[in-house]
Amino acid sequence: EAGRLADRLNVSLYVVGGCVRDLLLGIENLDLDLVVEGDGILFARKLAEAKQARVKAHDRFGTAIVLLPDGFKLDVATARTEYYEYPTALPTVEQSSIKKDLYRRDFTINALAVRLNAKGFGEVLDFYGGQRDLHDKIVRVLHGLSFVEDPTRVFRAIRFAVRFGFRLGRDTEALIEGAVKMNLFHRLSGHRLLEELKLLLAERDAMQAVKRMADFGLLRFIHPKLGWSSRLQAGLRAAEQALGWYRLLYLDREIAGWLVYVVALLEVLPERAVADVLKRFPFTQAEAAVIRAARLNGQAIVRQLSRRPPPKPAQVYRLLCGLSDETLLGLMARSKAEAIMRAISAFLTTYQHVKPLLTGADLKAMGLKPGPQFKQILDRLLDARLNGEVHTELDERDLAAR
Ligand code: ATP
C-alpha cells in the first residue's frame, strides 16, 4: 500500500535497517524504518492522510514519524541525494541516493534495504555484503572511519554481536582496539554513553555484553577503576539470577533490568568512584536513588533480614517498603542468602498487598478523633495483620480501641 502511494508520488521507497536484518534472520521486529528517494516528509504526510494517522515531521532532517491508529510506528527518512552535497553536479541516477544513505549506516547487516515500489517490489539492495555477513554471522563496519565518525557504534557492535551470537569482523575488531587506544569515548557525552550502556545491559545476555566490553578495555570509560574481576563476574551472575527469578514470578510487571546490572557493576567500586559515576552520567533521580539505596542501606538491611531469630513479617515489611523492585533485586543479588530470598519473595508476593480491614472512615465512625494518631493506629493494624495477630474485623476494632 505504501509502495503504491510511492508509485503515485513518483518516488522510490525502501524499508531499511534493523527491520530488514531481522526479517532475513526470521526474528520479529515491529519498528519499520522507511527511506524515500524524494520528499520523505511529503510522502509521510500523504501516507498519514490515507491511513488516518498522525505525523510528526522534522523538516531540518527530512524525517517524519507516522503514528498509525493501532499503535504501530513508522519512521520515514529522506535519502540524502548527491544534489545537496555537490550543488553543481547533475542529479544522479535513482539508486545512488539510497546507496549513499545506506553507506552512512553502522554495519553491513544494518545496511540492507528492500524495495517497496511495484517495479522491483521485494528486491533486496545489498551494496556492502550484508547478506553474506548475516549468513556468516559477522558484525562488520562499512569503512575504516566508522568508529571515528561515531564512537557509540562500538557499543552497538558489541550489542548486536551478543544478541545474535555473531562475531566481530577482524578489521572491525582492530578498529575497536584503535578507538580504545585513541580514547574516542571521552568525546561522548554522559548522556549518549549512558543510552548505549542501558541498551547493552538490557540485552538478554547482559553479562556477556559486559564481558565483551571488558575484553576491549571499555569498562574504564564507565569509570577508570572499573575492570573485569571474578568479584564483578559473581555480582553480575547474581544480578542475572535475581532478574531471572523475578521475571518468572512477575511477568506482568516491568522492571529496569539494566539498572540491576548497573548496581552490580558499581558494587565493586569504592564510594568515591560511585559518586563520580553518578556525576558523569545523567541518571534520573529515581535511578540514582536505586543505586544509592542498594549501596548505603544494603548492608544494614541484609543484616537485619538475616538475623536470628528471623524478623517477623511486619518487620520485613517495614524494612523493605518504599524500596523499588530494582533495589530489592540489588539486595537479593548482593546477599544470595536463602533467608533474604525468602523475605524479599514474601514481601513482593504477599506483604506488599496486605491492608487492614478497617479504614480511616471506620475509625472515625468508632468515635476516634481524626489526627496524627490515625496513621499510628492504621500502622499498628497493618503490622498485626501482617503478623497474623488479628483475623476478624472485630479483632481489629479491639486493637484500634486499645
Ligand atoms: P534494534 O533492534 O536494537 O532496535 P536497530 O537496527 O533497529 O536495532 P536502531 O537503533 O533502531 O537499531 O537503528 C535503526 C537503523 O539505523 C540501524 O539498523 C542502522 O542502519 C541505523 N543506525 C542506527 N544508529 C546508527 C549509528 N549510530 N550509526 C549509523 N547507523 C545507525
Automatic annotation (TrEMBL):
Native source species: Nitrospira moscoviensis
Q: What is this protein called?
A: CBS domain-containing protein
Family, per the entry?
Belongs to the tRNA nucleotidyltransferase/poly(A) polymerase family.
Q: Which residues of the full protein are shown?
A: 473 to 874 of 885
Give the source's domain of life in one word: Bacteria
